[in-house]
Amino acid sequence: MAVLRERACWATRQLLPVVRTWELDARRWVRALRRSPVKVVFPSGQVVERKPGPGKEPRKAAAEASPREQRLKQSRQVPPSQTPSTWEESGLRYDKAFPGDKRLSSVMTVVKSRQFREKQGKILLEGRRLIADALKAGAVPKVFFFSRLEYIKELPIEKLKGVSLIKVKFEDVKDWSDLVTPQGIMGIFAKPDHVKMTYPESQLLHTLPILLICDNLRDPGNLGTILRSAAGAGCSKVLLTKGCVDAWEPKVLRAGMGAHFQVPIINNVDWEAVPNYLPNDTRVYVADNCGLYTQAQAQMSNKASDYGWVCDRRPLKFHKYEEEEENLESAASKGWLPELEVQSYDSDWTEAPAAVVIGGETSGVSLESLQLAESTGGGRLLIPIVPGVDSLNSAMAASILLFEGRRQLRVRAEHLSRDGSYH
Q1: Contact, 394 vs 244, CB < 8 A?
Q2: Would strands 354-359 and 210-215 be described as parallel, antiparallel, or unpaired?
Q3: According to its record, what are the GO cellular component terms (predicted)?
Q4: Which of 36, 226, 258, 379 lies at 20 to 30 Å from 186 by C-alpha?
């Protein structure tokens, strides 16, 4: 029995793994080589603490983190759905356009058709700066077309919820673009309502009691420049009567340089409704784009065509009487032309709230504008120019008058402040 017991024990020892002592020592030394000592104690008793390497922190230091660091660490552990701090975490998705995508054709429809813009109530904005200004002012986006995802990530995340995001090729954007250097992003927006817009606070603080009325302006570049000058001068409002080019046409937007989202613009207004947009006691002044030469000619002539309503003295067609083949002579004989006082543009015309009418370069001002100026006690503002020059550009004339009005108001405010009656 003793022999059998010894054999069984020997068999059991054969089944157990044999671990050699030199293997244990090797593993221990490998772990020791991987470790970095926290302190080094020299025989002299000097103790030197070792600093952790870059990106490594002692476990004790991590455990003793400040409460602020612990709160930051906990905030990072919150699920992304609760704190959408990045574009990816917000859950936004975009589609890639495929060849022949019908969604792309809607862009050209918005660009070319004023009827579509007015019927559907949509406009097209191009460029990162213009789109950012529109979003800041409260314009509502519907669709964004972009060639690079970075352009969309630059926009506020909260403004992109519910908006269709479509990635297209830059070549397609270049084909649609009306810019010399396309910026790779376009957006279709709901047509802005001036009542619901949020204009810059700096603009509101410098608003003047001066209103601009555009009368039969047809050139997109001129209108865009006029809107830019109106925003720069601090106009309270801009009215576009029927017959003017659409303020939301791409060329007008490009020339306006963001002025559409800095000053209220009311488009397509009937002359009968213009007084509803004017403050009480507003005087309407018609810009005289002619000069002293035309005024002298009018004094020496009895012809209505020399009276100076248009600088080149070509027949003026009125909106209400275009179907009648009657010239200015017959109009004057019937008393259709109101008699307005002519005054220099630098005379004081800003005592009361003022509205300035700027006419188109081709057909001049309308009869309705002259009648409105007469009924409000306004007049004609004469900008003298060198004899032989037909007229000034409409945008230039508007800029001169608006900034002259701003100068007059500033001078009056300085006088009142000096007298102690203005605060």
Answers
A1: no
A2: parallel
A3: cytoplasm
A4: 226
Q: Domain check: are 314 and 368 in the same one? A: yes
| β-sheet bridge partners, residue 240 | 214
For CA atoms 178, 393, 370, 212, give the dihedral sign.
positive
Q: What is the pLDDT of residues 222-277, one digit of tens each?
A: 999 999 999 999 999 999 999 999 999 999 999 999 999 999 999 999 999 999 99
| CATH code for position 379 | 3.40.1280.10
Q: Are 305 and 332 in contact (CB under 8 A)?
A: no
Domain boundary residue, one of 157, 190, 223:
190
Q: Read off φ and ψ for residue 247, nearest 5 degrees.
A: -65, -20
Q: Where are the alpha helices (DSSP H) in 163-304?
A: 170-176, 201-205, 220-233, 250-256, 292-300
Going by C-alpha positions, the residue among 144, 142, 140, 141 that lies closest to residue 167 is 144
In a domain, 31, yes or no: no
| Rounded Cα distance, 385 and 391, in Å | 8
Under DSSP, the state recorded for 290 is S
User: What is the domain range of residue 264?
Assistant: 201-418
Instruction: Tell me whether residue 164 is in a domain.
Output: yes
Cα 313 to the center of its chain, rounded Å: 40
* Count of all residues that appear for the chain in the document: 423
Task: Give the whole-angstrom CA distance, residue 389 versus residue 378.
Answer: 26
- Residue 351 CA to residue 209 CA, distance in Å, equals 10
For 163-215, write each residue's pLDDT tens digit. Answer: 999 999 898 888 888 778 888 999 999 999 999 999 988 888 889 999 999 99
Question: Which one of 146, 164, 190 terminates a domain?
Answer: 190
Contact between residue 311 and residue 397 where contact means Cβ atoms under 8 Å apart:
no
Distance between start and end Cα atoms, the chain: 121
Shared-domain flag, residues 206 and 258: yes
Check if the beta carbon of residue 368 is closer than 8 Å to that of residue 320.
yes
